[in-house]
Amino acid sequence: ALLGLTQTEIENALYRVIVEDGRLDPGDIEKVIQEKRQIIRKSGMLEFYPAREKMDDVGGLDALKAWLTRKRACFAREAEDFGLDMPKGLLLIGVPGCGKSLTAKAASSAWRMPLLRFDVGRVFGSYVGESEQNMRRAISTAEAVAPCILWMDEIEKGFAGVSGASSDSGTTQRVFGHFLTWMQEKTEPVFVMATANDIERLPPEFLRKGRFDEIFFVDLPGEAERAEIVAVHLRKRRRDPASFALAQVARATEGFTGADIEEVVKSGLEVAFLDDRRELCDQDLIAQAEATLPLSATMPERIEALRKWAQTRAVPASRPGQAAEVASEEQFRERRRIDL
Ligand code: ATP
Asked: Are residues 191 and 289 in contact, defined by beta-carbon separation less than 8 angstroms?
């Protein structure tokens, strides 16, 4: 956790944490990470993202979670001595609201590495050479804080204009090129976690072998995954999932994203509260689910296109056999009418 700090910064950080309880133990790692936060704030390009989410807060996505758990060990000096390459990064592509950002935050907690959010859009400045310099500064800050996770959300938006004619005399391309070269050659333990929703706008260079260690596709959650997500959000709101018919709620939420499911739990809870503060029951959740038109119903073609694209280019983030049916808005309404 002290890696990347100067000797004086290390001394100051250690003095500060030892003085609190007269000891230096694993509990102090978190406090040392807090010290690093100050360095990052000064850079302006990156944002230190406090990650409170744990792996258990991510429902489903078992293959992705297992991969992250396995990869953790590959950062150790022992792995390097053994001849392994330092993990480079991960690209998560998928349906919005299904847990891509959540997984980045959970990885940061599980790996005990600070999460730095890198907003690529902020790199681009109006002066000659400013953008290139900003990109270099962002990278060197991340390296100073390493080991860390560099989280780039919706990467396709940040580098929009790389493909096709852009009007900025090639600045975007140069900045992008610099970033790609760094990704390819970096030796510091800066793990890039990039997310993307729109494959059409994603520069193909990102998909080339050797850029990322793996490309995962995050699909709509399957039935068993939805039950897990319902349980996560009940637990978060201090309800015991064991006292709910999770399978039934999972069936009522076919085609829902994780974010849609969270909304169902939140609004069910609100209904119960406003109804004389009675306790939340299965029926509240099912009624909310039935009153919701999930995001997937508004863009079935986009989801189908994503799935088709991912078949040959990405690894499923869920364990096998977890696929939700995607229905259009009309099909959705028709199905509900029949159910009634
Ligand atoms: P976007 O591309 O729109 O940023 P995303 O895939 O990154 O979407 P998140 O931001 O991770 O989605 O999800 C939004 C919220 O929905 C999360 O904060 C979480 O509360 C809930 N959620 C989504 N997926 C899951 C999941 N698999 N398990 C538990 N909660 C989930």
From this structure: no
More confident residue, 336 or 112: 112
Ligand 1 interacting residues, C-beta cut-off 6 A: 58-61, 96-102, 195, 197, 229, 232, 258-259, 262
pTM for the model stands at: 0.85
pLDDT digits (tens, 9 = 90+) for 82-95: 999 889 999 999 99
Most confident of 126-140, 191-205, 236-250: 236-250
- 210 CA from centroid of ligand 1 (Å): 27
Query: If 0-12 CB within 10 Å is exposed, 13-18 middle and 19+ buried, where does residue 324 land?
Result: buried
d(CA 216, CA 310): 8
pLDDT-derived band at 45, boundaries 50, 70, 90: confident
Q: Provide the token pair at 270.
A: 């609100």
Q: To 10 degrees, what angle do helices 130-145 and 29-43 make?
A: 170
Atom of ligand 1 nearest to the CA of 221: 27
> Ligand 1, atom 3: nearest CA belongs to which residue?
96
Ligand 1: which residue has its CA nearest to atom 9?
99
- Determine the distance separating the centroid of ligand 1 and the alpha carbon of 59, expressed in angstroms: 10
* Range 33-39 contact pairs with CB under 8 angstroms and sequence separation of 24 or more: 33/1, 33/112, 33/114, 35/5, 35/9, 36/1, 36/4, 36/5, 36/114, 36/145, 37/114, 39/4, 39/5, 39/9, 39/141, 39/144, 39/145
